[in-house]
Specification:
3-stranded antiparallel sheet, 10% strand, mainly alpha, single chain
C-alpha cells in the first residue's frame, strides 16, 4: 500500500509504490472480469424441488423445476423457498468475486459490498481518496472535507437580504 506522506517526500518512491498498487488492483479486476464473464453458480432449493443458475454477477439466468413436488407446496411456502434460494445463489456468486477482491488493502473498501450495492457511494469515494488525503493532511496541507460534509472548512453562509 502506498504511504502517501512518504510518497510526497520522495516522488520516485511514491510513483513506484503507486504503480505497484495499481498493477495489483488491475490484476484483481482482470480476475473479476473473468468470473463475471465465465462463472456460473447453481443452487438447489432445500427440498430439491427446483434449482437456480446464476451468472458471474449474481443475476438469475435459469430456474428449473425438478419433478412435480413444487406443485404440492402452498403458494407462500413456494414463494419463501424461491426467495431463500435466490438469496443463497446470489450470495454464493458474490462470494466468488469477494474471494478475488476481498477488502482492498489500499482503501479498506469491501468490493463485494460495492458489487452488491450495499455500500454508500459517498463512503466508497471517501474510502478511495482517504489514504491520499490523510497523506496530504500529514504534511500540513489544507485538505478539503470528505464528500459527505456539506461545506468546506471556514466557509460560512451569510443571509442575503432581498430588496
Amino acid at each position: 500500500m502506498t504511504d502517501w506522506a512518504a510518497a510526497l517526500n520522495d516522488a520516485d518512491l511514491g510513483v513506484e509504490q503507486a504503480l505497484a498498487d495499481l498493477e495489483r488492483e488491475k490484476q484483481k479486476l482482470r480476475e473479476v472480469s473473468k468470473i463475471w464473464q465465465e462463472s456460473t453458480t447453481t443452487v438447489r432449493a432445500k427440498d430439491n424441488s427446483f434449482s437456480m443458475t446464476f451468472d458471474g454477477r449474481g443475476e438469475l439466468k435459469e430456474l428449473s423445476f425438478h419433478g412435480s413436488k413444487y406443485r404440492s407446496l402452498a403458494p407462500a411456502q413456494l414463494a419463501h423457498q424461491i426467495v431463500a434460494t435466490l438469496q443463497q445463489g446470489r450470495a454464493e456468486a458474490m462470494a466468488k468475486v469477494e474471494s478475488v477482491m476481498g477488502t482492498s488493502s489500499m482503501t479498506g473498501l469491501d468490493f463485494s459490498a460495492v458489487a452488491s450495492g450495499e455500500i454508500d457511494p459517498i463512503e466508497m469515494v471517501n474510502s478511495l481518496l482517504g489514504p491520499m488525503i490523510e497523506g496530504l493532511d500529514g504534511l500540513g496541507l489544507e485538505v478539503p472535507l470528505s464528500l459527505d460534509e456539506t461545506e468546506p472548512k471556514g466557509d460560512t453562509k451569510s443571509d442575503k437580504k432581498s430588496g
